[in-house]
Amino acid sequence: MDLIGVNVGGTTTTVVRGDETGAVAERIVFSTDSERGAEPLYAKIRDAIRDFRTRTTRAAGVAIGGPLDAKRGIVLNAPHLPFTNFPLLERLRADCAVPVLIHHDAAACALAEWRWGPDAGASGIAYLTCGTGFGAGLVLNGRVRYGSSGHSPEIGHIRYRDDGPDIFGKPGCFEGFGSANALLLLARARDPAGLGRTTPAEILERARTADPLARDIVRENARAVGAACALLADLLVLDVVALGSLSQYGGEDWIAWVRETFEREALPANFATCRLRAAMPSVQDLSALAAAVDAAS
Questions:
Q1: How confident is the model at residue 73 (pLDDT cuts 50, 70, 90)?
Q2: What does pTM read for this prediction?
Q3: Domain check: are 138 and 273 in the same one?
């Protein structure tokens, strides 16, 4: 089965061709260039599917950040993309001549973990993006969890503390503490002339070299992620929480700090039965491919 997957990120977009086993035969990456606006970005997504399409292509899947009405395929108001109430699914189906399905990016990653990850088939899987934003994707009993409106869970919008970086006009929300971008926001609040002028990658690197302030900021970030893991595990009695981008860049120290808070905050029984781990390194590529499998079925 020839499938196309397009993962639209805030910085880069990845296009893969693969099959229903999760095998990837071809992959390209290009700059998303959100600043150019909605129509140029749409054209890049459309053209990527057309360029990868062959006579044997069965379907295409798109993984994209929300807020999103996944049922109608409308990108509502993505904070890191130029789309507002954009009918992405309708237009791609009209323009690409193959079946298309759109999933929220975090939901698509959770689906890829459920299909092809080390815990494939688990009854409750959550994926936390821990990247540009802080989103959650859920697969429960083999189905991606969306609301009746088609909306995906927005854990980043939940208030974590009474104060903190202002995201969504809501200081103290999880996204302001648990995303990769939060590292820089926290650094700007504590050291505006120093670490606040660097990047999330440099803050992580300085934490590895035992810079005390950088290490403290990274631990604060990990504590927020651990608290989010505990919230989800206690609420949904999950089997797996897979951690996204920061687990790759922060390494085992960061994951250990997340686990420390997770264990402290969750009910002991829920912590004991929920596996916390880094997501598959290829999960973002496979996320859109997982959406394409759904489109073909």
A1: very high
A2: 0.94
A3: yes
